Every structure is written in C-alpha cells, then in structure tokens.
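Feature request, filed as a ticket because there's no other form

It would be nice if the structure record came with a short human-readable summary line next to the tokens. Right now we just get the raw output. Example of a typical job, pasted below so the devs can see what we mean:
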Amino acid sequence: MDTVERFDRVADYLLECFANGETTVSKDDVIDDAGTVLSNEAFAVLDKIRENGVSIGDDNKAVDALDTFVQAWGQGYELASGNDLTGDDEPVSAVLSEYRSAKPTVDRPGPRL
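Raw output as currently delivered:
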C-alpha cells in the first residue's frame, strides 16, 4: 500500500466514524482487521508524506487536517473531534470530506481471468 492509499484509509476511517454520528475518535481506535492503531498509522503516514514530499489533494489541506489530530494526540490528548479546527479555521471533518469527495474511492481491478 503506497502513502496515498494509507492516507486515504485513515481519512476513510475518520469520515466513516463522523458519518455514523461519532463526534470524536480515540487515538487508540483500531482501523482495520490487522489491528492497525489509528494514531500510529496517522503519525507514520504523515512522516512518509513529509519524508517523500508526497502531495495529497490539490492543496494538502487534508494533510493539515490529519496533522491537527496528530498534534492533539502528540500533546497527550486521548480524543480528537471532527469539529477541531485546522490552521485555516476549518473543521477537520469538512476538510477530509471535501478531499474524499474530490477523489472518489476506486476499486482496484480484480485478477484477470
């Protein structure tokens, strides 16, 4: 899974939580069947984005949105809210939703028969 796919997986998990009426997420949430912990994956994917200069979306606002959560968890907070504001004073959930709606999920083609 490349860096963009990993970012998308985290964004999709967060958006699913917010769509289901949850207003906060825990840094200890498990985001997949493999036991991946949300905060660990968020920290790791942001590191990869920065190390490799990966662009996420047209303006990287979605990266800033995820970084808002990472900063809170890094400061010792257990929970982060979709209503938390980015540096541009936009709710994290709105920024991630805009990013994902501009880039629809595409299923990978299955094996050729």
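Something like this underneath would help us a lot:
The helical segments are 3-19, 38-52, 61-74, 92-102.
The first strand starts at residue 24 and ends at 26.
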